[in-house]
């Protein structure tokens, strides 16, 4: 029996190994703070998807337990997330369109099944080592998408903060409906929401040591109990179930499983994309490394345990993780402590949570959505690349115009279009030398750099594939036509070329034949092993000749000088491109 063995079951509690007893006090303190911050969002976020408030508590408890079991990070805290909830809401809307008679209990089952599907996708992606799928959505496109999601969430709170029943979807239609129903606005609800929103913004600008949502929940709850907001017509959370549901695996035969699986894929892309960005940003602060495949297992366990408690899909939470780091949490014991505190709150204090006014929770959601809008990030993208800024706007418009679920598709398509456009036009630059110095330099960088008479060296900055072959060929032929009539060699520097395909190989062979007819020899430099194998298979390596395939440009120059003595005189100043 070999020393190595196949590990079929991941190690449990990896973030707690080893654990130091002196960490316990810090972890418990951090857990209490995480729970305090988590309660407002746990109660408010389910409203985005039309789910009852208690499901947010269940998701918050189940997710930290699941992540602690398999998650690799010591300090990352998972839980409900605004962007994930927005995509979940879109999936729930699709389900309701097909089955309009669903009860709220059945809708909760659908959300739990969706969470299981997301968890299974996470495990499958981890097993297939697809952690790099986190890069599927680029940062500019995610920035635009999240702004679109934030605007959708804000519009979705109109009914909750005004007391007006809004039946329209989209961006402009709800605003138009509100204008038509302006006479039905419940002004005490709107005044309460505006007051709570103002408090949140004041605390954000001038921190007082207590998170704004905690202040709002405590103040709104006290005011609701003292002045009987329910009797004033202000909607409240209402009765919550006490305790926790028993662990169970959600299943409902009548639900459209195919739509839920497709919806789970969309939730997975957004939740893992945003979750891994959160993980990496906090890992930079703590100087830790992030293993996306290991995080997939942690997110998978978090989603499945959340579902087994009657919760919904979750991902990493930036606000809870930030609190954990600020208070000094060391391990996932902080998350487990937060989960325990939330369980106690549900068991003994659910009756106190029932009086929380809905407009105050709407104000929390609006404030949370505004925090997702990264205008400074957009400005930075504008400064760096106008093209990337344009794709950020496309992604934002997709989420606003077509809805969050279709917006995911728009964001993914925009990503692929952006990648294809980048790959379609790799730079092809001329290389030369600086008299008296070693090495080769890009000709356009400095007037000191001189091209070697008779020797044309072209550096292709990227792979050579079917989508860019035409562009590269046109550029190479343009360079040859612009060179002096005494050009005798064309050396293609392939050091940045990791991939070629059959279209590119056919182009290279055609170019070689045309150059040969003009008396110009074509060679290759620093060909990578995979590309070299393809060149041998298709016969281009033999046609070019082993003597024209070089390991570095100094060898190519030496061979050129040996073949044509005196050709390496760099004192002349030949035409430049």
TrEMBL record:
<feature type="transmembrane region" description="Helical">
    <location>
        <begin position="21"/>
        <end position="43"/>
    </location>
</feature>
<feature type="transmembrane region" description="Helical">
    <location>
        <begin position="390"/>
        <end position="421"/>
    </location>
</feature>
<protein>
    <submittedName>
        <fullName>SulP family inorganic anion transporter</fullName>
    </submittedName>
</protein>
<dbReference type="InterPro" id="IPR001902">
    <property type="entry name" value="SLC26A/SulP_fam"/>
</dbReference>
<feature type="transmembrane region" description="Helical">
    <location>
        <begin position="184"/>
        <end position="203"/>
    </location>
</feature>
<keyword id="KW-0472">Membrane</keyword>
<feature type="transmembrane region" description="Helical">
    <location>
        <begin position="257"/>
        <end position="277"/>
    </location>
</feature>
<feature type="transmembrane region" description="Helical">
    <location>
        <begin position="142"/>
        <end position="164"/>
    </location>
</feature>
<dbReference type="Pfam" id="PF00916">
    <property type="entry name" value="Sulfate_transp"/>
</dbReference>
<feature type="domain" description="STAS">
    <location>
        <begin position="445"/>
        <end position="560"/>
    </location>
</feature>
<keyword id="KW-1133">Transmembrane helix</keyword>
<dbReference type="InterPro" id="IPR036513">
    <property type="entry name" value="STAS_dom_sf"/>
</dbReference>
<feature type="transmembrane region" description="Helical">
    <location>
        <begin position="82"/>
        <end position="99"/>
    </location>
</feature>
<dbReference type="InterPro" id="IPR011547">
    <property type="entry name" value="SLC26A/SulP_dom"/>
</dbReference>
<feature type="transmembrane region" description="Helical">
    <location>
        <begin position="111"/>
        <end position="130"/>
    </location>
</feature>
<dbReference type="InterPro" id="IPR002645">
    <property type="entry name" value="STAS_dom"/>
</dbReference>
<feature type="transmembrane region" description="Helical">
    <location>
        <begin position="358"/>
        <end position="378"/>
    </location>
</feature>
<feature type="transmembrane region" description="Helical">
    <location>
        <begin position="55"/>
        <end position="70"/>
    </location>
</feature>
<dbReference type="Pfam" id="PF01740">
    <property type="entry name" value="STAS"/>
</dbReference>
<feature type="transmembrane region" description="Helical">
    <location>
        <begin position="215"/>
        <end position="237"/>
    </location>
</feature>
<keyword id="KW-0812">Transmembrane</keyword>
<feature type="transmembrane region" description="Helical">
    <location>
        <begin position="333"/>
        <end position="352"/>
    </location>
</feature>
């Amino acid at each position: 029996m070999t020393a190595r063995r196949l590990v079929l079951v991941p190690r449990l509690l990896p973030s707690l190994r080893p654990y130091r007893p002196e960490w316990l006090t810090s972890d418990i303190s951090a857990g209490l703070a995480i729970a305090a911050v988590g309660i407002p969002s746990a109660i408010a976020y389910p409203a985005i998807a039309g789910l009852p408030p208690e499901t947010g508590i269940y998701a918050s408890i189940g997710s930290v337990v699941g992540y602690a079991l398999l998650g690799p990070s010591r300090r990352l805290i998972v839980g409900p997330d605004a962007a994930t909830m927005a995509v979940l809401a879109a999936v729930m809307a699709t389900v309701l369109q097909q089955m309009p008679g669903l009860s709220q209990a059945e809708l909760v089952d659908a959300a739990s099944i969706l969470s299981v599907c997301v968890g299974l996708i996470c495990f499958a992606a981890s097993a297939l080592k697809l952690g790099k799928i986190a890069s599927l959505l680029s940062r500019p496109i995610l920035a635009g998408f999240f702004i679109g999601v934030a605007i959708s969430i804000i519009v979705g709170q109109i009914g909750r903060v005004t007391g007006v029943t809004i039946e329209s979807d989209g961006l402009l239609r709800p605003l138009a409906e509100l204008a038509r129903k302006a006479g039905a606005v419940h002004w005490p609800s709107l005044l309460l929401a505006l007051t709570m929103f103002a408090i949140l913004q004041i605390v954000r600008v001038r921190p007082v040591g207590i998170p704004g949502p905690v202040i709002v929940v405590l103040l709104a709850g006290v005011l609701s109990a003292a002045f009987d907001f329910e009797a004033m017509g202000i909607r409240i959370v209402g009765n919550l179930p006490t305790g926790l549901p028993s662990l169970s695996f959600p299943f409902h035969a009548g639900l459209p499983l195919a739509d839920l699986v497709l919806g789970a894929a969309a939730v997975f892309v957004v939740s893992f994309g945003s979750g891994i960005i959160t993980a990496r940003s906090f890992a930079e602060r703590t100087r830790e490394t992030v293993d996306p495949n290991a995080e997939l297992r942690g997110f998978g366990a978090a989603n499945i345990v959340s579902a087994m408690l009657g919760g919904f899909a979750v991902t990493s939470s930036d606000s809870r993780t930030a609190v954990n780091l600020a208070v000094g949490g060391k391990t996932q014991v902080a998350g487990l402590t937060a989960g325990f505190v939330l369980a106690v709150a549900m068991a003994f204090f659910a009756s106190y949570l029932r009086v929380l006014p809905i407009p105050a929770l709407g104000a929390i959601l609006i404030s949370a959505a505004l925090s997702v809008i990264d205008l400074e990030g957009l400005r930075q993208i504008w400064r760096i690349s106008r093209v990337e800024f344009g794709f950020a706007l496309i992604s934002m418009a997709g989420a606003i115009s077509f809805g969050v679920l279709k917006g995911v598709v728009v964001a993914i398509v925009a990503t692929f279009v952006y990648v294809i456009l980048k790959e379609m036009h790799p730079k092809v630059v001329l290389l030369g030398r600086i008299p008296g110095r070693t090495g080769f330099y890009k000709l356009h960088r400095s007037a000191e750099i001189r091209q070697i008479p008779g020797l044309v060296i072209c550096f292709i900055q990227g792979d050579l594939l079917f989508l860019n072959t035409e562009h590269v060929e046109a550029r190479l032929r343009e360079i040859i036509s612009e060179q002096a009539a005494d050009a005798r060699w064309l050396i293609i520097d392939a050091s940045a070329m990791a991939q070629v395909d059959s279209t590119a190989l056919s182009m290279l062979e055609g170019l070689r034949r045309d150059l040969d007819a003009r008396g110009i020899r074509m060679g290759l430099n620093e060909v990578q092993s995979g590309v070299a194998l393809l060149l041998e298979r298709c016969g281009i390596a033999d046609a070019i000749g082993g003597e024209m395939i070089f390991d570095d440009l100094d060898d190519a120059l030496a061979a050129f000088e040996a073949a044509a003595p005196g050709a390496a005189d760099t004192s002349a100043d030949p035409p430049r491109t």
